[in-house]
Amino acid sequence: EAQVTQNPRYLITVTGKKLTVTCSQNMNHEYMSWYRQDPGLGLRQIYYSMNVEVTDKGDVPEGYKVSRKEKRNFPLILESPSPNQTSLYFCASSFLTSVTGELFFGEGSRLTVL
Amino acid sequence: GENVEQHPSTLSVQEGDSAVIKCTYSDSASNYFPWYKQELGKGPQLIIDIRSNVGEKKDQRIAVTLNKTAKHFSLHITETQPEDSAVYFCAAPQTGANNLFFGTGTRLTVIP
Question: Does A69 touch chain B (CB under 8 A)?
Fold first, then answer.
C-alpha cells in the first residue's frame, strides 16, 4: 500500500530534550516536506526537499533541522525543543519535484513540549 | 511570499444543501490551486485542484472555480452529505519556490 509513515504518532517531551520525528514514503517520490498545523494558523511549511541531499527552508524553519540521506526518508529533528513547538506535524511527499502536484500526507505526529 | 486567505472558518449546512468556501491569494503568478480535505485524526487529502489555464473544474459533487483577475478561487460542494464533514484547506504555491501556502482552514459540518 502506498503511504507516508510517521513516527511517533504521539510524543510528550520536556524542554531541551532532543527528539527526531521520522518520515518514510514507499512511493519513490522525489519531493518531501514537513508542515506544522496549529489552530487558526492552518498548515505551515517547515522544510522541504526536492531530492536526496537537497533541502530548503519553508515558512517556519526556526528550531528545526532536516536531512535527506535516502530518497524514502526525511526525518525532522528538534535539537532543543521549546513549548512553542508543541504542535501537530505532518510529513508529505509528491511525485513531482515541485508543489504543483498532489501531496500525500502522513497521519500526523502530535508533539507536546512541557 | 504568497498570502492565502480562506473564509469562512466554520460553516454549518443542512444535509442536501450546498457549501461554498472561498480563498484569495496575493501572488498573481500563482498557477496551481489545490483543495485538501482533512478528516478527524488524519492527514489532509487532495480532493480537487485547478490550474490557471481553466476557470472551472468539476468532479461529481465537487467543483472549483478560479478568477485570476480577482485572485480568488472557490470550492463548491453540492448535495452535501454527513461524510463531507471535515476541515477543508485551500492552497497556492509561491512563484519561483517550492513552498505551498495553505489557508487557515474551514471546518464544515453537515447536519443530518
Answer: no
What's the rounded Cα separation, in Å, for the pair A104 and A82? 28
| Pairing between β-strand A10-13 and β-strand A109-113 as defined by DSSP bridges | parallel
A29 Cβ contact partners less than 8 Å away, ≥ 6 residues apart: A71, A93, A94, A95, A104
- Scan for cell 501572488, then name that residue: B27
pLDDT mean over B22-47: 94
CA B38 to chain centre: 11
Bridge partners, A65 (sequence order):
A77
Does B1 have pLDDT greater than 80?
no
pLDDT tens string B57-108: 999 999 999 999 999 999 999 999 999 999 999 999 887 777 889 999 999 9
Chain A residues within an 8 Å CB radius of B46: 102-103
Partner B contacted by A38 (CB < 8 A): no
Contacts of A43 in chain B (CB under 8 A): 44, 89, 91, 102, 105
Distances (CA, A) of B57 to A27, A83, B50: 27, 42, 7
Q: Quickly count: other Cβ atoms within 10 Å of residue A59's Cβ.
A: 18
pLDDT at residue B52 above 90?
Answer: no
Whether pLDDT at B54 is above 80: yes
